[in-house]
């Protein structure tokens, strides 16, 4: 309850008001205690007080019992007794300006972010990657950034990973080894995340955390309730979502210094999940953000069972603390109780260690920061009752709140603009078309070459056939000519022989008549035979000379 300029949260057993100084509310806080000891009531009372002070609030509702803040509380005998115990004047039940959000878009307006905004470090945590796989994921983000490829949703990241894998040989020269096994492991993780509904969280319109930093028309801060009943079933995604919010606040809000009151206050339920199995580099980032986000006007309150659930460096920065009862049935639990007691500034009026185990429901040990920033001595207190409804609401009340909160038009309809998936798909299609064109040109060239070769072969065959026909014709002509020449030579030879014989017979040949003596006839006959042979040789030489000359002239 916001009263007298302070956030009144409890009364000590002596009846003193225990309140948070508005100027110290951004020094962060802790609400701890075993299940069923009253942590949710304390959270509601503080959230209502911040809203009344004009400070927007964010709550992670993992059980669905914080939705009642949208409706006024209900009177009962128990409530009347509690109100009388605190002596509250002007008590009234009232509703608070409440907006509901849900990563899955079921119990509230969708909350989305882009893969790029989530970043490789948090994305690796969501996917449960090892160091090597995280390195490959970093390369994918780097290549996307250097090539102007937007990573908006999971299909963009998968397309980018495929691109990196297909070009691993070239990229490895600049970025280091890109093992296909690592790429496959990352893609399997993305498929599992999609099966869990993770694709609903990544996309556009991306949520702007400044939309949580608004006031209602009456000056009260909006209470933003993240419906986490389903999201909490995936603890890694739940915790990573909360870390993303802190990171967004740290990166986007300007430095504000010490303010009169915070700009916004976050309550993170089941806070131990933020640090469970977180790698060292992520823990260091969380510690840095928690330490520095205070100077930007942001208060962070962790809700968990035991202070030991948080790292020591984080715990040391939580100035405003409410410790509900812890049970100590085992040595391990006793150790936690002792550690919790030691986180408080002692009060000489009671033993903190004993008080922690004696507290009843609605009671708590409380220590807030004083005006000078020092922790006040721990007080045993009774927590105020909330003014809004305790418990959940029905679906009609939720739908009514969603219709009337004035923010749904910005986030209820998803947008899928051009990003890495579409660009890489277009490039792949262009490359495919280019490949098909080159293959078609190659096939055409091959076909043309085959046709040209066939034509050349056909022409060569035709030429060969023509040459054969010409040779055959020439051969026939030569044979015919040769036959004609031979015939002419025979005729000429006969004619020459006849002429030569006639000439010789008429001029040289000697008579061989019977009137001559036997000796004379024999001598003349031998002479005539010799002359005949000479005549024939002469005629043959003449014929050969004639036809030889004819052949040479040809």
In short:
The chain contains 17 helices and 13 strands. With 554 residues, the chain is of the alpha/beta class. It folds into three domains: 2-112 and 205-409, P-loop containing nucleotide triphosphate hydrolases (Rossmann fold); 116-203; 422-553.
Mean pLDDT: 87
Q: What would the principal axes of the Cα set say about the shape?
A: rod-shaped
User: What count of domains describes the coordinates?
Assistant: 3
Quaternary state of this entry equals single chain
Structural class computed from helices and strand pairing: alpha/beta
**Count of β-strands:** 13
- The helical percent reads 40-55%
At the fourth level of CATH, the homologous superfamily of the largest domain is P-loop containing nucleotide triphosphate hydrolases
Protein architecture, described:
The structure is a single chain. Strands 1, 2, 3, 4, 5, 6, 7, 8, 9, 10, 11, 12 and 13 form a 13-stranded mixed β-sheet that branches. 52% of the residues lie in helices and 11% in strands. The chain has helices spanning 39-52, 77-86, 115-127, 131-146, 154-166, 168-175, 180-195, 235-252, 272-275, 280-293, 312-315, 331-342, 352-358, 395-404, 408-411, 420-507, 518-553; strands spanning 2-3, 6-12, 17-20, 29-32, 57-61, 98-102, 109-110, 223-227, 264-268, 298-304, 320-323, 363-367, 379-383. Helix 5 runs antiparallel to helix 7. It has three domains: 2-112 and 205-409, 3-Layer(aba) Sandwich (Rossmann fold), CATH 3.40.50.300; 116-203; 422-553. It is rod-shaped, with a radius of gyration of 55 Å. With 554 residues, the chain is α/β, with parallel strands linked by helices.
């Amino acid at each position: 309850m916001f009263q007298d300029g302070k956030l009144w949260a409890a009364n000590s057993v002596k009846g003193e008001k225990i309140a948070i100084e508005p100027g110290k509310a951004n020094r962060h806080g802790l609400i701890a205690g075993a299940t069923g000891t009253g942590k949710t009531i304390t959270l509601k009372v503080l959230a209502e007080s911040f809203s009344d002070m004009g400070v927007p609030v964010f709550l992670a509702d993992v059980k669905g019992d914080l939705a009642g803040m949208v409706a006024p509380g209900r009177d009962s005998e128990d409530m009347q007794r509690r109100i009388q115990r605190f002596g509250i004047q002007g008590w009234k039940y009232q509703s608070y300006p409440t907006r509901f959000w849900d990563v899955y878009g079921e119990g509230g307006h969708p909350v989305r972010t882009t893969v790029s905004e989530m970043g490789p470090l948090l994305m690796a945590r969501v996917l449960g990657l090892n160091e090597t796989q995280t390195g490959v994921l970093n390369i994918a983000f780097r290549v996307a950034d250097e090539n102007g490829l937007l990573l908006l949703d999971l299909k963009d990241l998968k397309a980018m990973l495929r691109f990196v894998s297909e070009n691993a040989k070239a990229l490895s020269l600049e970025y280091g080894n890109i093992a296909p096994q690592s790429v496959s492991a990352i893609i399997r993780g993305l498929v599992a995340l999609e099966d869990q509904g993770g694709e609903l969280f990544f996309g556009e319109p991306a949520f702007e955390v400044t939309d949580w930093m608004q006031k209602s028309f009456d000056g009260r801060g909006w209470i933003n309730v993240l419906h986490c009943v389903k999201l909490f079933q995936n603890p890694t995604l739940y915790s990573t979502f909360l870390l993303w919010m802190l990171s967004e606040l740290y990166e986007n809000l300007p430095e504000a210094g010490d303010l009169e009151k915070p700009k916004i206050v976050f309550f993170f339920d089941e806070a131990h999940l933020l640090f469970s199995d977180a790698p060292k580099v992520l823990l260091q980032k969380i510690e840095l953000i928690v330490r520095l986000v205070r100077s930007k006007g942001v208060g962070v309150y962790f809700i968990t069972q035991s202070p030991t659930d948080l790292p020591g460096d984080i715990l040391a920065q939580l100035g405003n603390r409410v410790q509900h009862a812890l049970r100590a049935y085992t040595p391990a639990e006793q150790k936690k109780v002792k550690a919790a007691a030691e986180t408080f500034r002692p009060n000489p009026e009671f033993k903190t260690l004993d008080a922690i185990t004696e507290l009843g429901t609605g009671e708590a040990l409380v220590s807030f920061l004083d005006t000078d920033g020092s922790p006040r001595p721990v007080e045993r207190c009774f927590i105020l009752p909330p003014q809004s409804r305790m418990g959940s609401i029905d679906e009609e009340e939720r739908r009514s709140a969603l219709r009337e909160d004035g923010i749904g038009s910005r986030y209820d309809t998803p947008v899928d603009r051009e990003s890495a998936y579409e660009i890489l798909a277009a490039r792949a299609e262009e490359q495919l078309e280019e490949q098909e064109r080159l293959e078609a040109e190659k096939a055409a060239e091959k076909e043309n070459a085959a046709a040209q070769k066939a034509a050349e072969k056909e022409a060569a065959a035709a030429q060969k056939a023509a040459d054969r026909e010409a040779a055959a014709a020439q051969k026939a002509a030569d044979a015919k000519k040769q036959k004609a020449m031979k015939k002419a030579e025979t005729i000429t030879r006969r004619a020459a022989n006849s002429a030569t014989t006639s000439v010789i017979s008429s001029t040289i040949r000697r008579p061989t008549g019977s009137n001559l003596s036997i000796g004379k006839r024999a001598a003349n006959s031998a002479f005539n035979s010799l002359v005949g042979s000479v005549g024939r040789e002469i005629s043959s030489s003449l014929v050969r000379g004639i036809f030889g000359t004819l052949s040479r002239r040809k």
